[in-house]
Amino acid sequence: MQGVPGLSIIVPVLNEAAGIVAALDAVAPLRAGGAEVIVVDGGSADRSAELAGPLADQLLHAPRGRASQMNAGAAAARAGVLLFLHADTRLPEGAEHLVAQAVAAGHVWGRFDVHIEGKSAWLPLVAALMNRRSRLTGIATGDQAMFVSRAAFDSVGGFADIPLMEDIELSRRLLHIGRPACLAARVTTSGRRWEAQGVWRTILRMWWLRLRYALGADPRRLAVEYGYVPRKS
To answer: Per-residue pLDDT for 3 more than 60?
Structure first.
């Protein structure tokens, strides 16, 4: 296997038909080099699963929610290193080698810096603040394409099955093992989430939700406030 020995790229999707082909085309060179690509659909009402199937090594179905979907992908992955990639995020060139170098240097987990793509002139500042905060705190977000060794992921119990803050919670657990590799190479992610309701309004809302989560608020209640519709049990 070329590139990272045993790299699995896990992509959770929900109603991403408009962009899933481009997303998987972007990781096709890594797949050709030996990386495994796993798409986990959370019950899309569009053609996401149909379009993704031919472009992935595995197409799985799991209960809706990034945590649930990414845990399902991790459970099926055959690799020793797991990389969790949002469907609207693109890896930088040579990402597999950068991950390999980080792992070889002794890091059991890490993330990339992020560039946010969009029309707002504020998005570069938002990205810079995210990257800086992450370096200071060791907390990574899903937009930064988190990667982790299977052993470390399993040792902390994977993602907590919560509808929001699953990336923050995983980071907290992994910090008990070690600091993340903060790779300066940038992933590019869509600014649609920030632009939909206004950049600064979204930022303030997320800061408020994260503060309340840190103070012990129920993430399920926070998710509903964020706009998440609870899945049926």
So the answer is: no
